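protien #1 (seq + structre)
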Amino acid sequence: LKEKVANDAFMELKGLEPYSEYEVRVQASNSRALSAGRMITGRTLEDVPSSPVNVLAVVANNTSLLLMWDPPTIPNGIILSYRVEYFGVETTSTANSSFYDVRN
């Protein structure tokens, strides 16, 4: 329990987790007692997700790879899409890299 003694009618709660829901109650106190207050909920904004996990590339045929992955362990919001980028390591192709956006 953290306490801030002030007469302000506002306070910023810092150090919260991204895209997380919190229950908050504001109570008033005086020399007699503490008011009941009312519980409200609020959610922090999204942040950058962690990387997808368990990424695996399996040979599909002589010109294809099948890619599989699991969602990030810390999504920090709603994952809308994944970007798949690839580079030719040993190739005669003139393209150095390409990418695809994979929508959920």
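ok now protien #2
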Amino acid sequence: MEANRRLNVLERQLCAAQVVEGPELFEAAALSAICPKQLESLLVHDNAELRSAVYDLLKEDIFKPNHYLSLLEFRELTLQRLKRFVTADFNGRGFDVRDYLDDPRRFMAQLESLSFCDYSLAIKAGVHFTLCGGTICKLGTAKHHDALLPRLNTLDLPGCFGMTELGHGSNVMGIETAAVYDASSQEFVITTPSNEASKFWIGGSGQHGKICSVFAQLTVNGVWQGPHVFMVRIRDDNGAVSPGVRIKDHGPKMGLNGVDNGQIWFDSVRVPRDSLLDRYASVDAAGNYSSPIPTVSARFGTMVGGLTTGRILIGQGAITACMIGTTIALRYAADRPQFGSKLIGDYLTHQRRLLPGLAVTYALQLGMKQLKVAAFDSPRPDPKLVHVLSSGLKAAATWSRVEVLQQCRWGAAGIASGADCDRRGL
């Protein structure tokens, strides 16, 4: 009975398909009504000329895909690509991490553009400039900016971001890494009290990182003051691991193998008093703690507030992946005939596979546009609104990316999404 019912359903659908032709997705009249320049203006959020200059850079041979490299070769290529990026001149200016505060849209436009070349490059740049450099910009003061940011700009001092711990994940208030102030030497002593407190899956630490922005629970004169951030050297200028620091390279991963993730332990590592990023809290030579923010919870909110830019970049990277995938799949559908001369893109089933993902991509891109207005264009941004929007859009975009790209793979039978596809020309 059930088998007959299914056959009847299939028969009705097949008969209907013979009578009613599906709409032609690539009909010339429909396409001619679209103005590419207007569409680009709607979808590109800002800095169009700057983004174009970055895309021109990405056409150089060093950025050409090479999928036959070993793990260490791919990491080295990613590092060299990033070095080429920081030496480039984009319309009279190079990349400057200070734009994180001074011109956040310019800062993000350059880093977003890297996703159109290679995600390992985009993530390595994001960890170094956004998480490490942005933390220094946001939580540090002039002494940190002057001493560290010029070296970050040139990659002379590769940075990483030591927040996540093996036993705590996103529960930053619950981290265990300890920082105790020693007034006799005017130093902080950084300690990993347990294996669960080790800094885990830290991008850039496995091989190249030399400095790490370390989140640790600060204790001064026996009083706990909550999580604070310290700039800690994990390797010297020659690349040798610093005394008291232990690093484990996490090795090959399922993706992003150009990024050297690692695990870090600190064994009573002493750092100078100026290593504390002290825009919102400071400790004087005698060991007196002071902060304009009265409570631990309020200070904590300020400390992690700087992660918004990183959330936006991750969300935008996911949307960019959807852009790339749908572009490849739709171009393939517009060129691939099946069962005669009819293009696969003109079959209703194929349209139903690809067009929802295209619509989702448009919606997410326009949503991201509004988020950037709320975060960067308002004279007094609402921190709670920006936090909610950036967190929600990051989650929505990354989950959507999984579904959209899978449909694109199925729609192209794996051919148009092969590893040899060079997406720099999209």
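DSSP finds 13 helices and eleven strands in the chain.
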